[in-house]
Design the sequence.
C-alpha cells in the first residue's frame, strides 16, 4: 500500500487546494518536505492523522493529544482549523484527502482508494463527514461497515498509527513506559502490528462458537442461568461504554476549561508584572511535565497498593501458585489421556478386525488380557512422559494461561524488586509533589499581585475554573475505578458461564460441528504458539541488528529479549554482563536509538505495509549517529518514507547527499504570507540551493 497524492484544502495554513504527489519511484523510496519552523510541517503530519481518524486522533499519540488539549479540546481545535484568510473571504469548509494505491480489500477490485474528511463550520448538527471512493465510486462495503471502521479494518488500526506517523524527537516515549496502563496499551499495539491479535481474535471467535454449541444443548435451568449471566455481562458492558463516553466528554470539558484558565492566568501575570510571560511559560512547562510524572507515579503507587496485601500473605500465595501449576499439569495430562485413549482404541479396533485362523480360539479373557497389555505398552513407548490423572482430582482455581503468567509475574516481582521499587516510587512521588506545589505557589503569588476589581474578577473566574477542572478529574477517576470494578465482574461472570457450558454435553445434532471447531481451535493454538516464537526470534534479531548498526557503543547492548506472555509483550535490553538495562536510565540519545531500532523492527515485522512519515527526523542525534540513521534506517524502514527535516538545523547538506540516491521527490514549503503556505516542487539535487534562494527572496 502506498500513498499516491495528498490534498489539503483550507486546512490551517494551507489556503485553497494544495496537492502534493508523494509516489515513490523504483529504487527511490524517500520524499522530502522541508521548510522553516511555522511553515506547516507538523500541521501537514497532523492533517493526515485527522483525515484518517477524526476526533479519535488524540488516541493515536500523546503528540496529537497535547496539541488538541493546548487548543481547548477537539471541538475548538478542529473548528479553528479553517484557514483564517479563507474564513474572511467567506469560505466555511476545509478538507484533507489521501489517495492510496495497491490497497488489498478482500473480494473487491481496487486500484485507487481516496479518503476525504471534510469539516463545515456552518453545519452545527453534523459538521464533520468522511467520504471513501474506490476507483472513483462509492462502494457497498464502505457503506455497510461505515467509513471509520473501514479505515481501521482495511487501512490501519489507530492503535498502531503511532509507529507510522511520528515525531522522531518524541519517539523516546517508547522507552519510557512507567505505568501498567501504558504497558497494556503498548502491548496491544505490538500485538496488533505483529499480526498476533488477528489470530487471537480468530481463536476467540471459534471458542465462542464452541460455547454456543454447548449452550444449545443446555437444560431449561442451565439456559435460564446462562441467559441471566449473559444479560448481566451485556448490562456491565453497556455501563462501561456509557462511562467511557462520560470520561471522553469530561476530558473535552477539561481541555476547554484548562484553555480558558491558561488565558486568564496569562492575563493575571501581565497585570501583576512580578514575572515575565517567558518565565510563566517555563513554569507552566515544568508544571505540565511534573503533572505527567505525578500521574504516572500515582498509577504506579496504586498498582503497588494493590500488591501490598499479596506481599503480606506471600507464603500462602506461593502455595496457591504451586497448586495452580499442579492443576495446569494435570489438565494437560487429561488432554494427553484423551489422546492416549483415542490412539489406543484405534490400534485395538484395527487389531481386532485383523482375521485370525479358525483353529486359533481367542476367548474373551484372552482378548481382555491382551487389550490391557497393549494399552500399557502404547503408554510406555509413546506416552511415557504423560502424567496419570488422579481419580480424586478436583480443580480448585481454574486459572487461564494468561492468569497463570500474571500470577507468576506478580510473585517474581514480590520476590525480586517490590520493596526497592515501592521505596523509589514513593520518594519520587513526594519530590515531584513538593516541586509542583512550589511552582503553583509562585504562579499564584504572581496572579494575586496588584489586585484591582478587574483583576479580582479574573482571579475568581480562574479559581472557579480550576475547581471545576479538579472536580471533573475526580469524576474521571471515579468512572475509571467503576469501570475496573465492572470489568472484574465481567471476568467473574464469564468464568461462571464457562463453568456451566463446560459441563454441558453437546447434542448429537451439534456433535460434528463441535468436533470440527475443537480441532480448529487446537490447530490454531499450536499455530499461534509457533507464530509467537517465530515473531519473538525475528523481532529480537531485527532490533539487535539495528541497534548494533546505529550505535557507536557496539558492546553496550549484548542481547535483546522479547517476552510474549499471554497478551503481554515486553522488550528487554541486556548488557554485556547479562544484566537487564533499565530503559528509563538511558540517555535521551540512547533512548531515541532504541526507539528507532524498535520502530524499524516493528515495521519490518508488520503484516501491514504502510508509508512511514517522520517529523524532525535528525533531532537529538550526534554526527556519527545521524550518518548511521541516514544510511541504514530511512532508506530501508519502508517502501515509502516521507521526511520533514528542518534544513541545516536537523539535516546537513552532507547528510542529505547520503540520502540523495534514495530520494524520489522533494518539496519546499513556500510561505507566501502568514495565512498561506504552498508546496513548491524542486529537483532533489537542488533542494539546498532552492531553499537558500527562496529565503533570500523572502528577506
Sequence:
Amino acid at each position: 500500500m502506498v500513498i499516491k497524492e495528498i490534498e489539503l484544502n483550507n486546512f490551517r495554513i494551507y489556503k485553497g487546494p494544495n496537492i502534493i504527489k508523494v509516489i515513490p519511484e523504483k529504487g527511490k523510496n524517500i520524499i522530502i518536505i522541508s521548510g522553516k519552523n511555522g511553515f506547516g510541517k507538523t500541521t501537514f503530519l497532523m492533517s493526515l492523522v485527522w483525515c484518517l481518524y477524526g476526533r479519535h486522533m488524540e488516541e493515536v499519540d500523546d503528540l496529537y493529544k497535547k496539541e488538541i488539549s493546548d487548543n481547548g479540546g477537539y471541538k475548538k481545535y478542529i473548528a479553528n482549523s479553517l484557514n483564517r484568510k479563507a474564513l474572511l473571504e467567506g469560505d466555511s469548509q476545509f478538507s484533507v484527502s489521501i489517495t492510496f494505491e495497491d490497497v488489498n480489500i478482500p473480494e473487491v477490485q481496487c486500484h485507487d482508494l481516496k479518503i476525504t474528511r471534510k469539516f463545515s463550520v456552518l453545519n452545527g448538527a453534523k459538521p464533520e463527514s468522511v467520504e471513501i471512493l474506490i476507483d472513483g465510486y462509492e462502494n457497498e462495503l464502505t457503506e455497510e461497515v461505515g467509513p471509520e471502521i473501514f479505515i481501521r479494518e482495511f487501512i490501519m488500526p489507530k492503535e498502531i498509527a503511532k509507529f507510522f506517523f511520528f515525531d522522531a524527537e518524541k519517539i523516546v516515549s517508547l522507552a519510557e513506559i512507567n505505568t501498567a496502563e501504558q504497558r497494556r496499551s503498548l502491548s496491544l499495539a505490538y500485538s496488533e502490528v505483529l499480526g498476533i491479535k488477528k489470530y487471537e481474535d480468530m481463536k476467540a471467535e471459534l471458542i465462542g462458537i464452541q460455547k454456543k454449541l454447548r449452550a444449545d444443548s443446555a437444560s431449561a435451568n442451565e439456559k435460564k442461568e446462562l441467559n441471566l449471566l449473559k444479560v448481566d455481562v451485556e448490562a456491565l458492558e453497556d455501563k462501561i461504554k456509557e462511562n467511557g463516553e462520560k470520561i471522553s466528554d469530561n476530558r473535552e470539558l477539561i481541555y476547554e476549561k484548562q484553555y480558558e484558565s491558561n488565558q486568564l492566568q496569562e492575563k493575571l501575570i501581565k497585570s501583576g508584572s512580578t514575572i515575565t510571560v517567558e518565565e510563566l511559560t517555563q513554569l507552566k512547562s515544568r508544571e505540565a511535565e511534573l503533572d505527567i510524572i505525578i500521574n504516572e507515579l500515582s498509577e504506579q503507587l496504586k498498582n503497588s497498593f494493590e500488591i501490598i496485601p499479596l506481599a503480606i500473605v506471600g507464603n500462602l500465595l506461593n502455595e496457591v501458585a504451586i497448586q495452580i501449576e499442579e492443576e495446569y499439569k494435570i489438565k494437560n495430562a487429561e488432554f494427553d489421556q484423551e489422546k492416549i485413549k483415542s490412539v489406543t482404541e484405534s490400534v485395538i479396533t484395527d487389531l481386532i478386525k485383523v482375521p485370525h485362523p479358525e483353529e486359533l480360539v481367542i476367548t474373551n479373557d484372552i482378548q481382555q488380557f491382551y487389550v490391557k497389555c497393549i494399552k500399557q505398552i502404547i503408554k510406555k513407548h509413546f506416552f511415557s512422559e504423560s502424567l496419570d490423572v488422579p481419580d480424586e482430582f478436583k480443580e480448585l482455581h481454574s486459572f487461564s494461561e494468561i492468569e497463570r503468567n500474571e500470577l507468576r509475574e506478580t510473585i517474581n516481582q514480590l520476590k525480586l524488586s517490590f520493596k526497592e521499587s515501592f521505596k523509589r516510587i514513593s520518594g519520587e512521588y513526594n519530590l515531584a509533589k513538593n516541586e509542583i506545589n512550589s511552582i503553583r505557589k509562585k504562579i499564584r503569588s504572581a496572579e494575586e499581585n496588584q489586585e484591582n476589581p478587574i483583576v479580582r474578577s479574573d482571579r475568581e473566574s480562574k479559581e472557579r475554573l480550576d475547581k471545576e477542572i479538579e472536580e471533573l478529574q475526580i469524576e474521571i477517576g471515579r468512572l475509571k475505578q467503576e469501570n475496573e470494578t465492572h470489568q472484574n465482574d465481567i471476568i467473574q461472570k464469564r468464568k461462571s458461564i464457562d463453568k456451566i457450558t463446560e459441563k454441558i454435553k453437546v447434542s448429537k445434532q451439534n456433535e460434528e460441528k463441535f468436533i470440527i471447531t475443537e480441532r480448529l481451535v487446537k490447530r490454531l493454538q499450536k499455530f499461534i504458539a509457533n507464530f509467537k516464537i517465530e515473531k519473538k526470534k525475528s523481532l529480537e534479531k531485527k532490533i539487535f541488528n539495528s541497534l548494533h548498526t546505529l550505535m557507536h557503543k557496539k558492546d553496550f547492548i549484548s542481547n535483546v529479549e522479547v517476552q510474549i506472555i499471554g497478551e503481554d509483550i515486553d522488550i528487554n535490553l541486556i548488557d554485556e554482563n547479562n544484566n537487564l538495562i533499565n530503559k528509563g536510565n538511558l540517555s535521551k540519545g540512547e533512548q531515541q536509538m532504541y526507539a528507532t531500532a524498535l520502530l524499524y523492527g516493528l515495521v519490518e515485522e508488520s503484516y501491514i505495509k504502510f508509508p512511514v512519515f517522520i517529523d524532525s527526523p535528525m533531532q537529538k542525534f550526534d554526527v556519527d549517529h545521524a550518518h548511521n540513521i541516514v544510511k541504514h534506517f530511512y532508506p530501508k524502514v519502508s517502501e515509502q518514507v516521507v521526511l520533514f527535516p528542518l534544513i541545516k538545523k536537523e539535516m546537513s547538506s552532507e547528510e542529505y547527499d547520503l540520502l540523495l540516491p534514495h530520494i524520489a521527490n522533494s518539496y519546499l514549503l513556500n510561505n507566501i504570507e502568514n495565512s498561506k503556505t504552498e508546496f513548491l516542487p524542486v529537483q532533489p539535487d537542488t533542494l539546498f540551493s532552492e531553499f537558500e534562494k527562496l529565503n533570500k527572496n523572502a528577506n
Observations:
- The first strand starts at residue 2 and ends at 11.
- Residues 274-448 form one domain.
